[in-house]
Amino acid sequence: MADDGRRGDEDDRGPGAVHQVFVVMECLLEKLKVLNYEEEVLAKHNMKNLSRHYFVSSPYLGSNPGEQFYMFTIIAAWLINMAGRPFTEPQEYDEPNATVSNILAELRAFGVKVDFPPSKLKSGSGEYVCLVLDRLAEEALRRKGFSFRRPKYPTETTEEESVIEDDAELTLSKVEEEMIEEPDEEEENVMDLEALKLRTTHTEAEPSSKPDEILESTVDAAEWNLEVERVLPQLKVTIRTDNKDWRIHVDQMHQHRDGIKSSLKEAKSYLDKLQEDIGKTLEKVSSREKYINNQLEHLIQEYRSAQAKLSEAKERYQQASGGVTERTRVLAEISEELEKVKQEMEEKGSSMSDGAPVVKIKQSLTKLKQEIVQMDVRIGVVQHTLLQAKLKEKSNMTRDMHATNIPESAAGPFT
After folding, report:
1. Does the keyword Coiled coil apply (predicted)?
2. pTM above 0.85?
């Protein structure tokens, strides 16, 4: 409902509006789960659960449009009934246009503005399908009195965390200090020979302050032994070697040379034995090779002669293949000419065996005969008309002649 104004201004939306339909579909799926559509719709019609982007038209979703449209109509009818308006459940073979018109009519009855053609819903997927189902789901939730609330997060105890972090920092710093101090303690436990020498020379240079009489100890022997056992591990004397001293390097070189000599003595005997074995094996291989060459000399000669014959045969084959290719070309040309002649013969035979021209000639002759008969009739009519005209003219002439002769004869006696 809150997106009506936003959908009306499609031109003003940003580039992220293309993916808004995915968000609408996910919200729609959550609303359907709240309305318990799994048991009331899917289990009733034996359908599988909807995916997060089921009604989104996407190349990553290979869905059946007919199945999507049927699922859309079933869920829309169920949501309309949940919203408090009676709506008959559509069947699978109902008219899609009528079903879509009924759904849009119910949507307008809820006060939702429909600014898109009904043909957008016939595909069963897309932005408008998700929009219609989302509006119907909102009406159904409003009918049930359900509304989404913002989550309430527990208050965080920042003081305890800071104390824990301070303790962790303290323990870590303590560990680092102990790790740094450990080698110092070891160095302190180990006595330095150079410092001992300097101390002895310094004490010898100074005048002795010890009394001349014999000193008697008042310490118990058992306590003395315990103190000796306690201090004994700290009385280790180590000589710090200087790596820059050339004498040390010379001694190391002598040690390495002696080690190399001793190792060489042991390895030389094995290497000599290995050399003897390899030499004997090479001699055996060469003698065996000579024996094989001697035994297979005639076979080698035969192989060479066979190779020469093969090369000659290859040359003859190449020459013959050249003639064959030329003859093949000539044969192809002759075959083409033969095909042309066959085609011409077939055309002439078909034209000769075809009775259509004869039928046409017969029809023309019949028509010509009819026309001749008609012409004969017309000629007879014309001749008859002409004959009548001549007879009429002759009768007129004779009548005129008689008319002129009679008055002269009649006037003769009177004169």
Report:
1. yes
2. no
